Amino acid sequence: MNEFTLDPTLYDGRPSDCSSRSAAEAACYDFLDGLGVPYRRADHSETPSIEACAAVEALLGAEICKNLFLCNRQKTQFYLLLMPGNKPFHTKDLTGQLGCSRLSFAGEEPMHELLGVTPGSVSVLGLLNDTENRVRLVIDRDVLQPEFFACHPCRNTSSLRIATADLTGRILPALRHEPDYVSL
Length: 184
Fold this sequence. Notes:
It is a single chain. This protein has a five-stranded mixed β-sheet. A four-stranded antiparallel β-sheet has the order 1-2-8-7. It is built from five helices and nine strands; from the N terminus they run βαβαββαβαβββαβ. A hairpin with a 6-residue loop joins strand 3 and strand 4 (about 80-85). With about 180 residues, the protein is α+β, with helices and mostly antiparallel strands. It has a single domain, classed as YbaK protein, CATH 3.90.960. The longest helix has 13 residues, at about 25-35. Helices cover about 25% and strands about 25% of the residues.
């Protein structure tokens, strides 16, 4: 496994040249810029887990949100859960509040099909690709408490810090995914 590397520079906005970035990542920058949402960016090598994000969080000055892509047993209902990265996930706590059957991780194929991302790159910004609203957005209320929200731009080699007020007031309405709020 390659050693994790982090560019110590915090950038304002998109990269000056997106030609080496994925189309999904570039679409995130286009979306945010089109809404006029300011953001700061940290570039780094792949962050395959929330634990690998600690140095990125220190640079950003914001906690990177844990994003779990879940489904029901029949794989007919899909959920994107946003929760604090340091909070443990217990399925029964979520299903009880949503009133649904036991949920499990959805897997790579539906993740790519519905969100256009690969494992490790799941983000609320992936909902840009869910134009048919097949994914139900669920947000732990604790995610909304800090001043800033951090996530990947659909690729886990960059992380963005966005004002939480912009997430709730501009980004979520533009994504057209009305969230369900839970307390985990």
